[in-house]
Design a protein that fits this description.
two-stranded parallel sheet; about 140 residues; alpha/beta; 3-stranded parallel beta sheet
Length: about 140
């Protein structure tokens, strides 16, 4: 909703972090096609990282869920009994704990002699049915 904040966070702050010249860089992006300022700012940050940092991994995340989600997001609304329409399906999700585990693995990738920068999608790989979506919503 805050376009300036999205641009600041995703582009400007990423550029500022790269000024510290880290030996490696992992960036959490979105796997959705850009349709708004948030999505475009994520892709612009990806392009900037590719341009400025030789050792990076860009993680394109699907919908991350877990404790602390804002109540106006789909899963908390489903958990609270909201009626979801067919527009909400199919959806892919990944638990925040799985994201953290993958980041730990990715850090070890930078130690490989044959490391090459890359972009990856992190997902459960499962398109959820309404029943599965309700299960995910009540399981965190």
């Amino acid at each position: 909703a805050d376009r300036i904040k999205a641009l600041e966070t995703n582009i400007l702050f990423t550029a500022q972090l790269l000024e510290f010249k880290p030996t490696w860089f992992i960036f959490a992006s979105t796997c959705e096609e850009p349709t708004n300022v948030y999505g475009y700012s994520k892709r612009a940050a990806e392009d900037y990282i590719r341009l400025r940092h030789p050792r990076h991994i860009i993680m394109r995340l699907v919908n991350v869920y877990g404790p602390g989600m804002k109540e106006d997001k789909l899963l908390p609304m489903v958990r609270n009994g909201a009626d979801i329409g067919p527009k909400a399906l199919p959806f892919e999700y990944v638990n925040v704990d799985d994201v953290v585990k993958h980041i730990g693995f990715l850090v070890s990738e930078f130690n490989r002699e044959d490391f090459k920068s890359y972009t990856m999608k992190l997902s459960s790989g499962i398109a959820k049915t309404e029943k599965q979506l309700r299960h995910v919503a009540t399981s965190y």
